[in-house]
Each structure stands twice: as C-alpha cells, then as structure tokens.
Prior knowledge:
116 residues, alpha+beta, 23% helix, 22% strand, globular, binds guanosine-5'-monophosphate, binds zinc ion
Amino acid sequence: MGMGDCIFCKIAKDEIESKIVYQDPDAVAFEDINPRAPVHIVIIPRKHIERISQVGKGDNALIGKLFFIATKLAREKNIESSGYRLVINCNKDAGQEVFHLHLHLLGGRKFAWPPG
Ligand code: 5GP
Ligand code: ZN
C-alpha cells in the first residue's frame, strides 16, 4: 500500500476524521478508533514510513520525538505514575495492521507481561 491510500497519511492531512490530541510539523497523535485500554493514543510521524524496520539513520530524531510526545501525553492523561505501555508492532507476528509507522500509548489499566 502506498501513501496515496494510507489511512494514517489521510488522518495526518485531516482528510479523514479522527480525534487528534496533539500535532506539530513532524507528528500527529490521535485516539485509537478501537481502544484496547482506557487511554489508547496512536502517535505517528507525518512522513510515510511503512514499518519500524524501515527507519533510516536520518530518522533518529523523528523517532525520538514520537517517544517524547508519548511521555508528554501520558503525563497529560494522568497515567504517568500508574504506568503505561508504549508499543510498536512490526509485521505479521506482532499483528501490525496499518503500514504507516505508529507508536501506541496504552494506559489506565494493568497489562499482562509477557504480552499475549
Ligand atoms: P497496529 O495493529 O497496526 O499496530 O495498530 C493499528 C491501530 O490503528 C489499531 O489499534 C486500530 O484500532 C487503529 N486504527 C485503524 N484504523 C483507524 C482509523 O481509521 N482511525 C483511528 N483513529 N484508528 C485506527
Ligand atoms: Zn502513510
């Protein structure tokens, strides 16, 4: 799937509706449409990178920024002290469904470890 029909590119460009909770010139964060926890936010780069295995050296700052945004949102959502999980699924075994790199911020309940 190219970026032309990528659902997350469309969310970033505001071409399809979502509940955006943060945005800047490099990244967008929005509520997951099918939340798996009381807090479930998806953080994406505006740049169309299909999966984490495809980031290049030039993307280091961008990837760091996604994590920084996640920690800021966790604080805002009051899950910093209770705890939260940051997840990136890559390809089939991890259950990646949308092939535009994204970081999940999940919190507000206890999670199992190891993951299912
Ligand atoms: P993945 O399984 O690829 O790591 O996660 C994709 C996530 O995107 C899923 O949690 C799914 O619920 C969410 N998602 C898929 N399509 C949409 C959409 O159109 N809008 C929003 N807000 N979330 C979506
Ligand atoms: Zn995309």
